[in-house]
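Let's practice the habit of predicting before peeking. Look at the sequence and jot down your guess about where helices and strands might fall. Then scroll down.
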Amino acid sequence: MILAAAQTKPTQGDIVENLNDHYRLIEIASEHDVDLILFPEMSLTGYEREYADKLSFTESDSRLNKLRQLAVDYQMIIVVGAPIRINSELYIGSFILSPDNSISIYTKQFLHSGEEMFFDSSFAYNPMIEIEDERISLAICADIENRLHAENAHEAKSTLYIPSIFYTLNGISGAHEKLSQYAKTYSMNVMMSNFCGKSYELDAGGKTAFWNKKGDLIESLDDSHSGLLIIEKHNDLWLGKTIKDELFKKLI
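Done guessing? Here is the structure:
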C-alpha cells in the first residue's frame, strides 16, 4: 500500500487554479502508484469563512468531474477539502472520491472558535475508508483538538487516522505533539496534510507528516515548500519520502 499527503499553497478563492494544482499533484502521485492521496482542509478554495457560502460545493458539483475521473483512471482514492452544502446547511467537509466513481462526504465535527458563525457541524457524515487491511478514519483540523474524536476512531477499530488541517506556524508543533500522542495511545498510524505559505492572512505551518502506531515520526515535509509526502507499507513497516514542489515541477 502506498499513501500520499499533499502540502499545498492554495490561491485564495481561485477554484480553477487550485483544481489545476490538485490535478498536477495527483498525476505525480500516480507515477508512484499511490492508492490514496489526502489534501488539506478546504484545499479546493483555500481556508475561507466569509466567502465560503459563495464558493461552496455540492456532492453533484460538476467542478468535481475531472477529480472523479482521475480517481477512476488512476485507481486512487482522492480526498479533497471544500466548504460543502448539504440541503440548507453549510459544512467544512472532505469529498472522498473513489476508483469506482462513487463519492462520499465527511463533515467536520468540532468547529474552531468563530467557525460556528458560518458553518454547521455534524456527526452524521463520517464514512470509513477501507484499503486492503487498513481501516481509515478522517478528521478535519479542530477535530484533532478534541480527544474524543481520536478516541471514537479507535473505538471504530481504525488503523489509520488522516487529518486534513490548516495549522499556522505557531500551532503546528502542538499539532505534531498531539497527533504523535494519539498514534501511540490508540495504536493508530496517523497521516496529516497541511497548507504552507499564506492562507486567510495567516502563515500556514506546513510540516505535513506521518507517524506510526508507536507515535514515531516516520517522515515530514518542511514548513515552507509545497510537495508530496509519500508513505509505503512493507508488511507492518512504513517507509516515507518527500518530493518538494520545485523538484516535481521539472518532471512535467
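How did you do? The radius of gyration is 16 Å.
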